[in-house]
Amino acid sequence: MPDPKLQAYLAAHYLSGPKADAILARTSDSEIKVKRKKKRSKTDASEAASSSSGIVFKDDSESWMTTAPGEEDEDGLTPQVVGGAAGDVKKGFRKVGGSGSKQKEEGGSGEASSSTQPTAAAGGDEPTTEFRAGLRTKEEMKAARLAREERKKREAATSSSSSHPTPHTASDDNDDEAARLAQTTVYRDNSGRVIDIAAFEAEQAALERSRQLKEAERKTWSQGLVQKQQQQAARSQLQSVQSQGIARRATDEDYNSHFKQQERADDPALAFLAKKRITGPQKPKYKGPYPPNRFNIAPGYRWDGVDRGNGFEKLLIERKSALQRREQEARAWGQSDM
């Protein structure tokens, strides 16, 4: 069984709260004195000093313990309460704004102020509505919305009045031209010389055209004279076709001449035609005499007249000629008696 005196002593010196109070209430020892630590305020100390008689000596070193009435702690942060009743504010908190009843009164008068706002704004400029943090009532939000709408209407009216058309004069044209020239961007090269954009673009276009012409001419370098003539004939034909119609008739001269120039192997008039029609390109031929050969083939047009063979063709032709002459002589000798 624990000692009640020991428990009372421990509760008096080392414990606090309802448990210590219960232990001290059970004990009946009148010698044990309960020590309570009570925080004495600065006001109680000042009242006690004023009530006591005599001179009170204060040390300057104890001035840090006292705080001026209007002074606040610089290091600490003081919470702020927006709205709310004064009775709910605890120690260390500061109330900002009016109570709920005042807010209701202000909200009730919001409509009246919003109705009188346009008349006040007509006389002068409306002050900019400052944005308020925290909760706002329905009346305050409505008043702010009406103020914004009214401000937008006034801005639209001023912009429409400023954009009203005025009679156009020559001075306005000069002013517009001067403004356009003033707003024109000036381009310069590395040396600081002004570059004319129009002239520069024209020069670049001329260079591009010359480059295209050179490229087209370079493509024709691999073409011959005949190919160029064919291309020219095709272009002229296309130009002539542009002016012709789609329908073809029996009296069309171009159409008939085109078919007359065609040569066919089964054409019966091809054997007695006085002049053979030449169609298409023809190779050049050798002009001049040339030694005979067994196939009667003419030399090329580049032959210089020198026979570079082994002489077989020449001996063969001479042998054939000798045999043919002997045969003719024998026939003539046999018929001499007749």
- Main sheet overview: 2 strands, parallel
Percent of residues in helices comes to 40-55%
Q: How big a fraction of the residues is strand?
A: under 5%
- What overall geometry do the principal axes of the alpha carbons give? elongated
Mean of residue pLDDT values:
74
Helix and strand arrangement:
Blueprint: H1 4-13, H2 18-26, H3 42-51, E1 80-82, E2 94-96, H4 100-108, H5 110-123, H6 138-162, H7 170-183, E3 187-188, E4 194-195, H8 197-219, H9 225-242, H10 253-260, H11 312-334
Parallel strand pairs: 1-2
Antiparallel strand pairs: 3-4
Helix pairs in contact: 1-2, 5-6
How would you describe what is shown here?
With 338 residues, the protein is an all-alpha fold. Among the domains are: 1-30, no CATH class; 195-240, no CATH class. It is built from 11 helices and 4 strands, in the order αααββααααββαααα. The strands form 2 sheets. A two-stranded parallel ribbon has the order 1-2. Strands 3-4 form a two-stranded antiparallel ribbon. A hairpin with a 5-residue loop joins β3 and β4 (194-195). The relative contact order is 0.02. Residues 136-156, 209-220, 249-266 have a biased composition (Basic and acidic residues). InterPro entries: Bud13, CWC26_splicing_factor.
